[in-house]
Amino acid sequence: MKRIFYSFLIVLLLSACSPEEDIDVSEEDGTPLIKDVKIPNTIFTSEKNNRVIDEEEMKQSIKVYLDSSEELDNASYPFEEFLWDEDQELHKSELDKLNRINKLVKENDENFSNYISNNTLPEGYQEESERISRYITASNEFIHELNETIDNIVDEASDGSFPDIDMKSIKDKTRVVNGREQGKIEEFLDKENIDTKAFGRGD
């Protein structure tokens, strides 16, 4: 959630800059080097269909989905930091690695969404599992869209033009990705004793 907030703040700051102003986005201390990034080898997968899922399996499924999402998010972050520097370019092997991470993000979201849609979940889990799925999927789409917006702002500003920003699309996703929704998810995780590294809970 903090990452989304800071990315959104950057969009607002960049859009407020005049074309003549220098735009400087620096790497935070402690960000791993791209060469050190390891692609997570686990995402959520399940071939179950029209099955009744018991509570223990459901808890484990949520944990795997959230943990995988967090690991993929952490793996992609150094690439995004690198790409914000307009003087830097990724080599083919690095682009392949980033594309692989993005593909796994999409697969992770789709696999979990299909799992909770096509099976019977334990009592009290359907609504909250759907909330988790919507939140994480929208969060991933939100970050991707913000990164594209930042790229467009920097490109257009460097050409001397003032960029237009599609704030409606960004605002639409904040209806799903916000502190209130995250709070509901974390309350559910605590209630059901689901341990996960997502939302900074593994720090």
TrEMBL record:
The keyword Signal applies. PROSITE patterns: PROKAR_LIPOPROTEIN. InterPro entries: Membr_lipoprot_lipid_attach_CS, NDxxF_lipo. Keywords: Signal. The lineage of its organism: Bacteria, Bacillati, Bacillota, Bacilli, Bacillales. It holds the Pfam family LPAM_1. NCBIfam families: lipo_NDxxF. It comes from the Bacteria. This is NDxxF motif lipoprotein. It comes from Virgibacillus pantothenticus.
